[in-house]
Amino acid sequence: MKYKDLSFLERAMPTDWNPDDWLHRERERHLEELKDFLRIPSVSTDPAHASDVARCARWLRDRCEEAGLVAEVHATPGHPVVYAEWLNAPGAPTVLIYGHYDVQPADPLELWRNPPFEPVIEDGTRIVARGATDDKGQMYCHVKAVEALLATSGTLPVNVKMIFEGEEEVGSRHLDAYLEENRDRLAADIVLISDTSMFARGRPMLTVGLRGLSYVEVHVRGASHDLHSGLFGGGVANPALGLARMLGGLLDESGRVTVPGFYDRVRDLPESERREMAALGHDESALREEIGVTELVGEAGWTALERMTVRPTVDVNGLWGGYTGAGAKTVLPAEAHAKVSCRLVPDQDPEEVTAMLAAYFRERCPAGLTVDVDPHHGGVPFRIDRDTPELVAVSRALERVWGVAPVLGHSGGSIPVVASFVRLLGLPSVLMGFGLEDDRLHSPNEKFELENYWQGIRSAAWALIELSGGR
Ligand code: BES
Ligand code: MN
Ligand code: MN
Hints:
Aminopeptidase, 2 domains, alpha+beta, four-stranded antiparallel sheet, 18 strands, binds manganese (II) ion, 34% helix, 14 helices, Alpha-Beta Plaits, binds ligand BES
């Protein structure tokens, strides 16, 4: 690895540093690059896209090099990690930037206005493509921010290390081993991640809590083969009905999870934080409208925002079995299946909850049926202390760029690797997101606001400046 010849005479940024001219002058190129990034179908879950994922990693490495970092593609037993660094600020803090270049599958394809991997700018305001907000658009802000700083000032105010993984959407299977193997090389003072949402349009948010995840697949089996429902119905247990009964029992009348032990480790939010959340003015009717539901429902005694961010839940993510084709078929199916997941909050433990779920299904399995519960990847919930100096520093950066102090809020989503950063590297993550509630991540017509792309680049640059602790 060899650094490009750059002059690093002065680390501190001039107080009037302003990337706007540079950003504006080359905005077409910055947009074209994001489009090129989005054109690569780096769908991590689909083996048919493995070579696209690998190509995407090489593409990203090359852009990092062009930005002025030293970058490499590191193989793992799964999809590769792109590692990039710039370490020419001796004595200054080191910021480890994380993002993921893999994306969710694009289906159902017929619901997209344009093909998912042919990015289109709509209304001149947003870019539509799979991965636009999750996470290509957001993570690319950091590459561009480093480029902006180096191009306009010749230096960075801090040391920067970047890791971009290709397996986030499939549970970051090989990242823990990668972090352990590269512990020394990844040494840093703080992790900085853009893979979350803003509180609302124009209202930035630092996410101080993420939910964890426990995920199982449930297989219920009855007879050894499908049966004629006229000849056998009424005398043989129906796996689909048995599964439905067990799934229906997961929540009680008040919306609480019935799995024994589920709430044992749940740490309640301090009243002060509940009051703060209530004062944020979450717009429930706008949310109803956006997602097209008549009513928001859930656990009694908690606001919709609380239920979706700081309370644990259970959901059925998929359900199949029996005849689902056209017309009617009078069959008593031999098996039925479901994917079931729980969002977790501190101090719930994913493995413990997975065991509780398995026990729930075993104990409730109706007579005449058998049940198998197979665990998938999980994730440990995350909280960062609101007083963490680096969080405060990034908050100043966001206020400078957006003209308003960020909300310190919780998000209901999961990024399992943030708990690994704590456990394996001893580092908290500052979660500075540029997504919006209506970005449709994981869904057809995913988009990223161009305003958030430009502001995200500025925010990422100013975050590094504020994190330098100088000036
Ligand atoms: N970036 C999302 C998580 C997210 C989105 C957090 C918005 C906060 C706000 C991430 O890519 C994701 O989709 N995570 C998965 C978990 C993973 C194990 C598949 C999730 O939350 O379902
Ligand atoms: Mn993501
Ligand atoms: Mn995602």
